[in-house]
Write a structure and sequence with these properties.
Helices cover about 35% and strands about 10% of the residues. It is an alpha/beta fold and about 250 residues long.
Length: about 250
């Protein structure tokens, strides 16, 4: 028997050389888009008021709306008592609050921390309790989508001002650990100068902020406190002088 060869009618193809790797062909993911500024940062005048959360967090938003405000401040819980047990905002309440605020285009949203918090305290028990309470304030502020969280520096007691400032900085750092800050900024409010309160002098507030620069800390200037502390902001000359100090310190 003779051997027969069959052809499928397809021409023989030459072997291709391996394709060389071109670094330009490497997949490069697109960078994350730049975060957009919130809608309330449009340069318009912001007029706000402190509104109550009694009954519901949503009530605070509706009160601001009815008064014609486009910004507001609230407490996230009772400001004159230590919170016991769970102090978190229920997810359903937080989601409803954020959605309604977006509808009303209200901002910025500022939360004022509990008055009992003393971040400057040299008493270990009070300092620990204050750190925990301020941590809880941060968690609630993040849940509600707040832009700023205002806190009083506290009273130094028997400590020196320098020691108290160091304690305040460390307390804020401890409170913010394991708390995803996101866009939330902590604002240190100036004091009126009563007793051993820290922060009546703008230089003291500036020193605190210097220690918190990695946390993007800022200042909340209470004009009534400024006046009580000796800054004569009730007239043009005094206001100009105070602004000069502010610009030099911050």
């Amino acid at each position: 028997m003779t051997e027969q060869k069959f052809s499928l009618g397809m021409p023989e193809q030459p072997l291709l050389q391996p394709t060389e790797f071109d670094p330009e062909d490497e997949y490069r993911p697109e960078p994350d888009p730049e975060p957009q500024a919130p809608p309330w940062m449009d340069g318009s005048v912001r007029i706000g008021i402190h509104t109550s959360i009694a009954g519901s967090y949503l009530n605070a938003l509706e009160s601001a709306r009815k008064l014609g405000c486009n910004a507001l401040q609230i407490f996230s819980a009772s400001p004159r008592m230590w919170q016991g047990g769970s102090t978190r905002v229920p997810d359903v309440d937080a989601q409803a609050f954020r959605a309604r605020r977006e509808e009303l285009r209200l901002g910025p949203l500022v939360i004022h921390a509990n008055y009992l918090i003393n971040l400057a305290s040299a008493q270990r028990m009070l300092q620990t309790r204050s750190i925990q309470a301020f941590h809880d304030e941060i968690v609630r502020a993040m849940a509600l989508g707040a832009d700023f969280l205002v806190v009083h520096p506290g009273a130094r007691g028997e400590s020196t001002t320098e020691q108290a400032i160091s304690t305040i900085v460390e307390s804020v750092k401890q409170a913010s650990k394991r708390a995803p800050m996101g866009g939330l900024r902590i604002l240190i409010e100036n004091a009126a100068g009563m007793g051993t309160a820290v922060g009546a002098r703008l230089e003291e507030v500036g020193e605190i902020l210097s220690g918190l620069r990695n946390l993007r800390g800022g200042a909340c200037l209470d004009t009534a406190h400024l006046f009580a502390a000796g800054y004569d902001v009730k007239n043009g000359g005094g206001l100009g002088s105070a602004m000069g100090v502010i610009e030099g310190v911050f």
